[in-house]
Design goal:
- The structure is a single chain.
- This protein has 3 domains: 14-115, OB fold (Dihydrolipoamide Acetyltransferase, E2P) (Beta Barrel); 123-195, OB fold (Dihydrolipoamide Acetyltransferase, E2P), CATH 2.40.50; 198-268, Nucleic acid-binding proteins (OB fold (Dihydrolipoamide Acetyltransferase, E2P), Beta Barrel), CATH 2.40.50.
- Helix content is 12%, strand content 40%.
- It has 5 helices and 17 strands.
- The radius of gyration is 24 Å and the shape is elongated.
- It starts with 13 loop residues before the first helix and ends with a strand.
- The mean pLDDT is 94.
């Protein structure tokens, strides 16, 4: 495991459990400036985050809760929403007042270290593990490390088009993504390059099969049906079928040179269906990803910036 991970990635490790268990362990974490993680149990009226670390009360002051908190750039809702969730921190100091132990913590210190030692070193095409934090219609926000958010735009979640990110990912899900771009300190990520080329997906199907799919778009000239997150086919228009429905389809033909799969709708299914994601790329970096088969009339590719 790399040094910097999304929040929740350290919580259940043996090392982290030991570091949070006793005051002596917290003293060692302070000396070593170790990154540890605990569950926030309360956000008080002054927006300080509270944690229970064995017999020690842990407090993350609002000013130490995140990068930008000291100048008011962090909204209160961002702190309130941490209650009941894991947060990463470094121990700043430990006080003993009449036998009551209190540890002052900094989440901001972890984020700064993550930014300087990990995120700043990332380049376009690098593969990273992230955790989905929340969804908006335009994309999925993810924790790229230490609670620092990045965005996967909705059109970067797959080649197959979806109406909402919830049709592809869920909150709390861990994903492998490619760094698409870095601009003005913001990182944009992409999932679709991880989910396989047209040929890698199409090889799981053959003409004559009847399989399940989900309707993604209904047009006057036909209905686009997703067979896999990076693969869709076209069926004849049917006025009784609508977006989001699960269907069974007969595969009439597969045409690689045109990236086309011709389908015929057999039935509308009662149970919802969502094709499962499969990762086809296992490397740590990619320079170019070509979705379309070699020699195809239409070229779909991603060229990552140097």
């Amino acid at each position: 495991m790399r040094e910097f991970v999304f929040e929740g990635g350290l919580l259940h490790s043996v090392e982290n459990i030991a570091a949070c268990s006793t005051s002596n362990a917290l003293e060692d974490a302070l000396k070593q400036q170790k990154i540890i993680e605990g569950i926030c149990c309360m956000c008080d009226s002054e927006m300080n985050l509270h944690l229970k670390l064995g017999a020690v009360e842990g407090i993350i002051p609002k000013s130490e809760s995140a990068i930008g908190a000291e100048c008011g750039k962090v909204k209160d809702i961002a702190l309130i929403s941490k209650v009941g969730k894991p947060v990463q921190f470094m121990v700043q100091r430990i006080e003993n007042t009449n036998g009551h132990l209190r540890a002052w913590l900094s989440r901001k210190a972890v984020q700064r270290a993550c930014q300087e030692k990990y995120i700043n070193a990332l380049r376009s095409g690098d593969i990273v593990r992230v955790k989905v934090t929340h969804l908006e219609r335009f994309g999925a926000f993810v924790d790229i490390g230490a609670g620092i958010n990045s965005l996967i735009p909705i059109d970067m979640l797959s080649v197959s088009r979806i109406a909402h990110p919830a049709h592809r990912v869920r909150e709390g899900e861990v994903l492998c993504c490619a760094v698409r771009s870095k601009a003005e300190g913001k990182i944009t990520l992409s999932l679709r390059e991880m989910l396989g080329t047209w040929e890698e997906n199409a090889c799981h199907f053959e003409a004559g099969q009847t399989v399940k799919g989900v309707v993604r778009s209904v047009e006057s000239y036909g209905i686009f049906i997703e067979l896999a997150p990076n693969l869709a086919g076209l069926a004849e228009y049917n006025e009784y079928v609508h977006t989001g429905q699960a269907v069974s389809v007969y595969i009439k033909s597969i045409i690689p040179e045109k990236m086309k799969i011709k389908l015929s709708i057999i039935d509308v299914l009662e149970e919802p269906y969502c094709p499962q994601k499969e990762y086809y790329y296992q490397g740590a970096h990619m320079d170019v990803w070509q979705y379309s088969p070699t020699g195809c009339e239409k070229v779909i590719e991603t060229v990552f910036a140097k």
